Amino acid sequence: MSGKLKRKGIDNTKDDDLIIESPFVDPNDPMAAFLPKSFGKQAIAKSAPQHDKTKRVDKVASPPKSLPREDNEDNNRPSSKVYDDDSDDDDDSDDSDEEEEYPTSHELIIKDHTKTVTSVSLDPSGMRMITSSHDSILKFYDFTGMASNHLHSFKSIEPREGHLLHHSEFSITGENVLVIPACAQAKVFDRDGYEVVEFVKGDQYLRDMNNTKGHVSEVLSGTWHPTDRNLLVTCSSDSTVRIWDVNQKRQQKEVIVVKSRTAKGGRTRVMCVKWDDPTQGGKKLLAAGSQDGGLTLWGGDGPFNRPMAAVEGAHEKEVGVSGVAFSQDGNLMISRGLDGTVKSWDTRKFKKPIMTRTDLPSNSQNTTITFSPDSSTVLTSDSLGNLHFLSPATLRSEKTLQVTPEVPLIASLWHPRLNQIFTTSTDSTVKILYSPTTSIRGALTILSNPLKKRHIDDDPSLTTDIATGMNADAIYLPNAVLPSKTKSLAQANAIANAYKPFKPHTTPFAKSTPDEEHIRKNVALSGMRDEDPREALLRYAEKAKNDPMFTGAWRETQPVTIYSNEREEEEEEEEERSKRQKRY
Description:
This protein is an alpha+beta fold. 12% of the residues lie in helices and 26% in strands. The protein has helices spanning 42-53, 95-101, 443-448, 489-498, 516-522, 533-538, 541-546, 554-557, 566-579, and strands spanning 5-7, 18-20, 69-70, 106-110, 117-122, 128-133, 138-142, 155-157, 165-170, 176-181, 187-190, 195-198, 219-224, 231-236, 240-245, 254-257, 270-275, 285-290, 295-299, 309-311, 321-326, 332-337, 342-346, 355-357, 369-371, 378-381, 386-390, 397-402, 409-415, 420-425, 430-434. InterPro entries: WD40/YVTN_repeat-like_dom_sf (IPR015943), WD40_repeat_CS (IPR019775), WD40_repeat_dom_sf (IPR036322), WD40_rpt (IPR001680), WD_repeat_GAD-1 (IPR051858).
């Protein structure tokens, strides 16, 4: 029964199901183009080809050169939990299970900077992203306004002209952005890129840092308070950690002087700082890592005059600590050193590291380390372009990805709401690792958005400028054909560039050196600097004597020239001054 609905229940049968038969239409019938072929869930079908284009081809990373070791009383005896390639455990699980655990099956590449990207941050909702770079530019991205053919920011600003950016981070509410340029003053912007506050710079001539109102040298890092949206902390090369209030820019709220026993003068560069999150069950701790390799802990609510715990030489000296991270309960802290090591610490017994991993090279002071949203995995990168997923208990690599082969990775971030991993590297790229099944929004929003199309007004060959188009003096015949514009967009840009001043060719000495012969012939008075003025005047002495133009009457009245004696005049003036009486 074609195109009709049959119900068997009318005939008192047991089956009450509805049977729908699709109408039979000839494929050549024009009516077939107007009939729907499917219903609902069209978004997945549209973005599926885009997901196939962004699927990763994972390369097997090289095995670790050394094993994690447990630091104990037996002279750093190796831990019993080591790598065993021949074990019959469940390490070789299916790829599908691994993809469910780590969202790394696909990647989206954003290359909008020109130099090393030092940091990446997202607001809590995961709708906006910011990146900072060594090109001094801070970029704002909105995933809803991006497409697969338009991976660009909606706004770019230069917080401090000519100064590279160390770090940028969204606040806990996503309203403000903390920016750390390579200077003594940190800045705060709103989520749209407008400056909110610039903190004051301290007096650099004061020796005691407790008496200064701000940093006196380059700020290296900073972060927001985990619960108070108005508080933030910064660390600097002036050996201080300062807590600021956004509503008070004239002076910091607290100043903490970090003293070093190994550095010269007791001062060291404080390279990283991190606040423990009490909302996740943490202990309200404040940790800082310095260039002398030391780690310091304070109570998050103060007092800050003395540290709660400190470890001298936790990492190698003169290279320092690039990042620290806390677990959810605050009992475990992970530190990342530029000496190629990652160490785990117990904050309740902050004396020796629990475990040490020594085969993770790093050469950037912005290299980060972070926990996964559930604190079950530690995420860090190395200078070989590998992204490591470490076990917090053993620091064993659960998975290693070659994100940017032979290109150092800098920062990494695992967003808890999107379930996506963001990485930055020295080749000016930002990569978004995601899974089409377990991730939400973020990269999936970009791929599902329609492709960006160029507006007709952007093509000058199809538009007419009113200022240079038809005017009142022009006469056009009714049947005449108007001259067509054939200039393309490239030709229009070439014409615009023709009005730019000519840039001279750059020589190996970084400046232009014109030809001396050309200057002497074409530049007027170019040779006067080599000419003797006395000789130039004596050339006209004979002519002025024989044919005087203005002093002809002096031949009879004053045949001999009389010159004034300046020395006698000066002596007379001095005598007159001495005769004058001083008035009181």
